[in-house]
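Example record used in the benchmark description.
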Amino acid sequence: MNIFFRTDASVKIGIGHVMRCLTLAQALRDRGAHCRFICREHPGNLLEWTRQAGFESIALPLSDKRSHIDLPADEPVLPHAEWLGSDWQTDASQTIASLGDCSPDWVIVDHYSLDHRWESQLRTVCEKIMVIDDLADRCHDADVLLDQNFYRDQDRRYQGWLPKHCKTLLGPGYVLLRKEFAKAKKGQRTRDGRVKRILVFFGGSDPKNQTQTVLDALKKMRLLDIAVDVVVTQSNPNRHSIKILCDQLPGVTYYCNASNMAELIVNADLGIGAGGSAMWERCYLGLPTITVVFAKNQVRTTEDVAKFGVIKYLGWADSVDADDYQRTISDLISNPGKMRQISSAAVNMVQEKSTSLVVDEMLDLQ
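Model output (structure tokens):
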């Protein structure tokens, strides 16, 4: 199969869309598919990352201006339209041009700025379209829709947004997880609830600099018998100052673009991080986690997961300070029983072979 992914990463968008597409691309490549990426050159893009993973990656130019296309007065504007870096017509034309002479078996799109209009344009040059989404706020022209997040009303969220023939893959049973996570799970220890190691990771760009806030809390706590792993990515604008602070604190190890995230999660007893794709990685490996949200699209699923005791949820990142983290960390450290309960609930949210199930569903439609 020939498969193209249209997705983006940036300081504003974050890295989650590209990372989950990269996970799916690797699983498809293992089944013999030829996968390529089409991404716009936003600040904080991951084009080099996808190339280093062995995938041809085509760069679309960034433009801060609307194209020459005259848009109808009643043309709907999506809430995240500005994240695209062009209008959708230009993006569709550039994407089609990027395909060259290839007629893809699949185009997989993971982008909040695109909807059925863009997808209908791409349908003229490909066999099937898959959409990865979690907003349920716009129409799609898709053959498969994947939403890997948990919602109490997930069976109803996309009613009215999809064509009748579209197959839906909904919930954590279809979470896209890299092979390293399945490998890590096989040799995973059973956590006893005691905290000897903490993992701090707030996703790609950490726009509210919560990493710094957590480090401030840990500095006050003087947890000399607890090791701390701090992970940032190249998209984090504060990564240099965070490294300086990490170097000053005993027992703290700094990682940038860590390639062993599964190992770090397995070795940790307590996580501190954001909602989104990384939340499911921590759940899969049963890591009790203090969780905050950075964006509206993270709120519903994070709140619903919290009601099942899967995480310790603190709310919006910009409303949480060092004292909040200090109190919560202290409470969990002093309550091993609660930690064991959270870990058990987290593990039960995600199935063992979720990524393989997505690939199987795609292959069944060929």
